[in-house]
Amino acid sequence: MSTILETRNLSFQYPDDTAALKDVSVKIESGKKVAFLGPNGAGKSTLFLHLNGILKPSQGRILFKGREIKYNRSSLMELRRNIGIVFQDADSQLFSANVFQEVSFGPLNLGLPEQEVRARVTKALADTDISHLVQKPTHFLSYGQKKRVSIAGILAMEPSVIILDEPTSSLDPYHGKQLMDLIDELSRRGTTVILSTHDIEMAYAWAESIYVMLDGMILKEGVPEELFQDEPLLKKAGLCKPLILEIYQEFKKWGYFKEEIKPPRNKKQLSQIIEALAPTIKD
């Protein structure tokens, strides 16, 4: 796979001298599902604000499709057309009077014909399952609906990369699953999806690659089943081990799993492994 988004030795300092990012280098492959983990204040949100040009680094470079991003108006507009970000707080992203106006704002700013704008809005609303809300005032929406409107506004831009900062925060389990199903569908269509989360179970089951951050630095990057078996890393970053992996390791410790059995990533995979072992366990 080709690299679609990259940072090289990225550092950033806020006006109050807080060093939010320190020599951060990441490579995001096109079409991948990538999660960023770490405690509050680790630098995840600050990094995301750099990836589509909202913040400008104090040092280092950011490359999109191999080309260093520039900070003039036309270059930033093109960048944000290709890289959309959904903020953690949906209220901070919505500013139009109703849903149609909100979702159409981005395509209109691209100077697209009215027919094309309406087609994009209709598709984005259908994809997020909120077509019935098209004329509803944004201030009457539930929190989950606001999240979906925020995502629809980004989808209407047809980006190649979508970044979501804590997408399931403040959502109940049902609506959180609905949102993750939508994110999975975007990934299946080829969109590169980057998210931050405190939900360890979700990150372990969902991500193809995980970056762990602490104090503005990248501690480690790797595939979930290997990264979450790095005990010193988990302790240093204050991360818990996913329950599914803990169960797998207990069975392995008791001698039920052979070395060649890969750690399961979700409940279905764990159930299949246990079901295959059932005769052995009964004996």
TrEMBL record:
The residue stretches assigned to a coiled coil in this entry are none
* Compartmental location: Cell membrane
Q: Which InterPro entries match?
A: AAA+_ATPase (IPR003593), ABC_transporter-like_ATP-bd (IPR003439), ABC_transporter-like_CS (IPR017871), ABC_transpr_CbiO/EcfA_su (IPR015856), Co_trans_ATP-bd (IPR005876), ECF_ABC_transporter_ATP-bd (IPR050095), P-loop_NTPase (IPR027417)
Keywords, A to Z, come to: ATP-binding, Cell membrane, Membrane, Nucleotide-binding, Translocase, Transport
Q: Name one GO molecular function term.
A: ATPase-coupled transmembrane transporter activity
State the SUPFAM superfamilies in the record.
Answer: P-loop containing nucleoside triphosphate hydrolases
- List, for all copies, the residue spans of the domain called ABC transporter: 5-240
Superkingdom, according to UniProt? Bacteria
Does the keyword section mention Membrane?
A: yes
Recorded topology in the membrane: Peripheral membrane protein
Name the principal localization, coarsely classed: membrane
Q: Which Pfam families match?
A: ABC_tran
Supply one GO CC term from the record: ATP-binding cassette (ABC) transporter complex
Q: Which GO terms describe its biological process?
A: cobalt ion transport
The UniProt entry's sequence similarity note says: Belongs to the ABC transporter superfamily.
Function recorded in the entry: Part of an ABC transporter complex. Responsible for energy coupling to the transport system. Probably part of an ABC transporter complex. Responsible for energy coupling to the transport system.
Q: Which NCBIfam families match?
A: cbiO
Q: Can you say what this protein is called?
A: ABC transporter ATP-binding protein
Q: Which organism is it from?
A: Desulforamulus ruminis (strain ATCC 23193 / DSM 2154 / NCIMB 8452 / DL)
